[in-house]
Amino acid sequence: MTESTAKRVELSEVKTEAQDKLALSQRDFSIVKSVPVNVEVKLGKIEVSIERLFSLKAGETLEMDKDVNQPIDLVLNGDIIATGNLVAIDGNFGIEIIDLMRES
Question: Where is the Flagellar motor switch protein FliN-like C-terminal domain positioned along the sequence (predicted)?
Answer without folding.
Answer: 32-100
